[in-house]
Amino acid sequence: MRVQLLLLMALLCIPFLARPEDGSQLWLRFSKLGKAIHGVDILGIKSADPTVALAKQELLDYWKGAAITLQIDVKQKQLKDGYQINQNEKKIQVVASRPIGLLYAAYHLLRLQETGGQLSSSKIIEIPSYDIRVLNHWDNLDGTIERGYAGHSLWHWAELPKKLSPRYEQYARANASIGINATVLNNVNASAQVLDAGYLAKVKALADVFRKYGIKVYLSVNFSSPKILGGLPDSDPLRKDVQRWWKAKAKEIYTLIPDFGGFLVKANSEGQPGPQDYGRTHADGANMLADALKPYGGMVFWRAFVYHPTKDDRAKQAYQEFVPLDGKFRDNVIVQIKNGPIDFQPREPFNPLFGAMPHTAKMLEFQLTQEYLGFSNHLVYLAPLFREVLDSDTFAHGEGSTIAKMTASSGNLHRETAIAAVANIGQDSNWTGHHFAQANWYAFGRLAWNNTLSSAQIAGEWIGLTFSREEAFVDPVKQIMLNSREAAVDYMMPLGLHHLFAFDHHYGPEPWGDIPGGRPDWMPWYYHNADSLGIGFDRSIYGSNAVAQYNPPLDKRYGVRANCPENLLLWFHHVPWDYRMKSGKTLWTALCYHYDQGVQKVREFQKVWDRMEKHIDPYRFKSVQSKLRMQARDAVWWKDACLQYFQLFSGQPIPYELERPIHDLEELKRIKLPMGHHN
Ligand code: BDP
To answer: pTM to 2 decimals?
Structure first.
């Protein structure tokens, strides 16, 4: 009896207890109005369009400002997915040329409202920088995620198509709220299975949920699908039966999903099949798929992430393979290029392909999931990395040919333009593992929409929407975010060092890593080249001459040691330990200082964060606090491992004013994390 009474009392209390904050609401924390304050009228559209209805509903539910008219004006084609917002006295008028523009405008208004922004009296015109703003999920059909650190895949393949998780719609809404309009559901290391009829029915179910949020579904395809699924003798793109197989497959897909987006393809890369298996080129392969999709308006995103162990400097290979194919791709093919020439390292120079292939549509691929940035344990805000890449000048058409300009709507062949990022989303209640990793999803969407936004502006918006608008919280936390990427570069691989990661899982440091008989281009020594003389990869004309792939004057800027930006020095040069840096320090001393600085910065983040306790909920506060502790421990691990290892070559002491190592190198060498490839 007493137990029952207690239980009853406990149950009665539950509604009065604050609901534990788990981060699941992301940046969408508008408070619901009991009753709409003002009307929302709709003009210029006859039938009840579900996207327009959604825009209206979001505003009725959450908008606290003046009355609004939503209007479609199909003549205003120049707006694309964008919108115009006019405000006069007591009314707001929103004009878009497509229904999705109205939904994006609704989120624009709500974002302003929630961040305390003012609607200026003049009109606002927003036109997206890229036509296709796409997330790439590296999700496998068995529910694991390649390089995913936020739990299992969001897609419950076994339950689809019948059962629809409520998260599918939440996912679509979150994406729509930041302008993302495309999603590739599955891993680029693609299973052919995703194209069989059973899976296509599941894909259709997801597409049906996403549609009213303006999101198109794409699939990664395995180039050998005709052989694996269709039973053909091979998948040679020049064979008629192979071409017929893809055409029939495209027809089958579009019958189910009339607005299907297209295919993403990783071919002849890291063991994936591709046209080169049959002596054909990347263009032959891409064009064959493009022809199959063309009648339905589908696109091919063909990845340029290719390299072979036996050839030249890995950093040169994508350029070498793709530049000869310039102008040979169909107009519905976009070559998808990782931001750097190696692989999502903490810092890389931009991929020289962006400054080449003038007759080929090109798109950027960023990585949100922190494969090389501490997984979901480290707070690393990536907008500064994205900005650095977008602002990089390729000099393709003289000064000012930034990657932002080269890839966005304004330039580039008058074809569809696109930008992609590898998603960091999983089943975790906060979606991304680390609460602050949500900011990277957010930042990508905002930059895909407007590639001129600053990292600080995006961080400010995100903090205001996600946590609090109090200045005493926003300002210091913004500083943490803005400094976090450089901190990670400093404690992991400063001055242009790269790929010092532990084999396969890429979490911790293993600059000594060497798997006997393993691929040299997967070994850290391939990249750092430390020896008694110095450290770094010589990519100047005396070395691999990768610098020649950059347009003048960059070839000389990067190629001549004295001109090379110091944050890329060891990317392009093998530099003596006693080389004088601009600061007057020797290279060895500067290296030690950078590692130390990385550690000190994370310690500073901890101090700042601990003072934030009173501003936010205890759940997210504690979670971030404990992750920062882990990051601080990892930063020391990185520093101790790298400095003690490189010291074996430099033969010099760590400057005495810096903190001493607290781990033995031998002890660090024994660390083997129990993580599989698919962790
Ligand atoms: C590397 C990842 C690998 C991916 C590959 C890719 O380690 O898991 O499959 O890139 O982008 O960064 O295809």
So the answer is: 0.96
